[in-house]
Batch of 4 targets.
Target 1
Amino acid sequence: MEGGDEIRQLLREIRDAQREQLAEYRRVTERSLELQQRAVARQEQIGHLYRRLVGVGGVMVVALLVLLVYLLVKWSRYLFG
């Protein structure tokens, strides 16, 4: 019977080790999911900021082009003679 007790003890140890591994796997998986969610949130924030910057830059380019056309029209007789 001693062999049966050893086998039971080994099986318990294997079971306990598997439970520990499963708990660690769950912890790591939850942490990974949390980090991914934070990364997605940051990407969304950066995307909103990028769109704002592109919008402001586009408005500035249009304003500068309008100013350039205005100045060329106003000064065309002096520049082109």
Target 2
Amino acid sequence: MNWPMVIQCPEGPGMPMPPIASEPAVRRVAAIVHGEDEQGTHRLLDTFARELLQRGHHVRGVVQKDADYSVLTGKRMSLLDLDSGCSYPISQDLGPGSTACCLDPAGVAAASVVLRRALAERPELVVVNRFGVLEAEGSGFAAELLALMADGVPVLTVVAPRFLAAWRAFTGDDADELPPQAEALHDWFTRVAERAR
């Protein structure tokens, strides 16, 4: 937890005012830490990004569409470009009954163009569907996330508790961690937007 910073002032006549508590500086990078309802958190991120777009904010990035399940194909996932509406399939067909991870790194690589375009545009916010197994291993969207952060572009993503340690190491422990609640996302974005003015 980030505690308020307290500034100590010397005591005595004619000395400056007493200690002042200040809020910690808002960080431009944040992750929604989800619990059991991973799909609900992805819907929350999607809804939040679309609300900002409807209000006229310049938002770019990718959100995850709800996964479809089929006995024949297993889990089917895709990413949606918030700007163009283009869909990027990110799951492999591993055959009926497979329980292995179906994430397709080639699909994620194809979708990375969305984040590279966002870096060139410098929007108010870039949303990234998740920081997951690929990013924790240094692939997936890792390079694009690092480039966005290095350039000071605000980034919001989703992280599962099992990848929280990797996320903290990836960001140098310099990212806000948010609960999966719309109010928390709007509060964070408002503070980021105010800081940018």
Target 3
Amino acid sequence: MKERRNVECATPQVCRATGDAAGFSLLELLVVLMLMAIIAAVTLPIFGPGVSTTDLKRSAREIAAGLRLARSQAIAQRTEATLELDLAARAFRVLPDPRMHTMPEGIELKLFTAQSDLISDQVGAVRFFPDGGSTGGRITLAAGERKFDVDIDWLTGRVSILE
């Protein structure tokens, strides 16, 4: 059965729905849009420009790639290779390359490594040996409640990312 709409037409060009078929006026729609904009403007800064899970995971993968590079260099060149991590600057580098790889703001880094590889309070290292082994350790990347651990096995030098 077809539903009938109540429509009044003053002229053939101007028709208006009446009764249950009546819609919203342009003014009502504009008021609702304005309220939504105000609510968005107030709530978005509360959640802020925090670090996304994607950024956190990308940073963990970047550190893992740096560790794997250092391990590969140690094996290929038959010498020790080192990844140096600066916690305060949220950056790392694979020595002797001077380029620092920086993590996004909002990511907190923690390093657990051998005492002999702590250069200062805020700088530490993970060393890899020609046989593929390492001093081992863990680098934790955290942003709020989310965190990723990059583990380095001391015996094999294997690097893995744990969520």
Target 4
Amino acid sequence: MFKEMFKSSETSPVYQLKKHYPEIYEKMICIEINECKTTFKQNIEKGIQTKLYRKDLNVENYVRFYYTLIFNINENTISEKEAFDLEQDALEYHTRAMATPKGILELEKQLRNPII
């Protein structure tokens, strides 16, 4: 069964897990949500401290917006490549919404010279 589920490299394992093993998927998602909330919150707070993000942000809401967006992409996208591309666009969109002019300049620099 596992061989059939993962035989296509274009099929997302997360999508397949949700489809075939919803209980395990739910446990995995709860763990990931908590880890993501912590990481996203730390990132936003650091961005505010370094003046890359606006100081008037409601951090909890922005954390929630971002993980909702990312998890929605992963839950509803079968292709891993498509999910990755959408996540990159979502990250840029989300960062622009939070960024100061200094942050926008840094974002543009990162987009011109990606690490990936």
